[in-house]
Predict the structure.
Amino acid sequence: MAWQDQIFDLLLQHEVTQIAYVPDAGHKILIDRSLADARVHSVALTTEEEGVALLAGADLGGARGVLLMQSSGVGNCINMLSLIKGGGFPFLTLVSMRGDFGEANAWQYPMGQATAPVLEAMGVICLRADTPAEAVATVSAALTMAFRARRAVAVLFTQKLLGAKHF
Amino acid sequence: MAKGSAGREIGSAVAPKFLLDRREALPELLGRHEDFLIVAGLSGASRDIAALTRNGPHAYIMLGAMGGACMIGLGLALARPDRSVLVVTGDGELLMNVSALATIAVMNPPNLAIVCIDNGHYGETGYQKSHTSLGTDLATIASGAGIKLIRSIEQQADIAAGASLIREANATVFVLLRVKPTEPAADQRVLDPALGRLRFRAALMGE
């Protein structure tokens, strides 16, 4: 079983019912599993900040959601994260990193390198995963942090884990 | 009349199709507001809803996170298919993330209705003209986004049909309520977003 499949199963075990994303190669397995599974709402976004607001709405209704995005999309979320921080909402995002290890596309570096500083500036705890085993363990920890301790948490799947895209 | 850049008119009179008074039209459109879980976008809409509901816990009143109201409504509607969810927001707030209408149209929850109070201006920042009094039509955008049930209301006679639509629909509804750029209800809003979340959840889920 791929580590992404283990993570999808973890999300369901923790009663996640809304999975939001702007389509991204790094999250392909999670996205495809969400589309195929009637137990979750698979929400394709036009921009990542929509997912931040969506997850707050889910929480208002007593439901749990996760935002899947690439590091470039983090930049689109900054002001909307003030809703999470000010409102005290639980928040979990899984971020596929670009521009952090072996990246060939220079366009990805500014936001890739700014991902953690920007998230932390908006009160989101950043955890990194460099290996498949770390990824599964970190998402498990993050689910507890977000939904039991009501924190805002980001799990960064680094390029050591995902591999750098070929250009 | 002076022309600004890109041919915009400055200081023109109120366009004739913005006729209704929001303080009368919105309550008539909504009817029994207690039937809905409401998300109110910042600025005028949140003032109107705070006054109408007397800061009721079934309304999540926003004073920030501009552009987020419709998507909060979607998340709530998907979480609670047993309840009717109503987003009430202004043209400026909706325009900031207008592509959310595409996201919402694709999901098409039958229990979600969006009411946009369109006064053609940015009310909280000095009544600068918004795009909707300069040629942009949010109902057309909603239709193009894929929303199936849409109504534009400009006259009192049209309100009743809108009131039915937000209650009886089996698909996501978008109602554009065009109003004069006059003052919303007097400001009674509670400023704390965390308090708003706790009150809303406590009323809905008893926690």
Q: What stands out?
A: The mean pLDDT of chain A is 97.
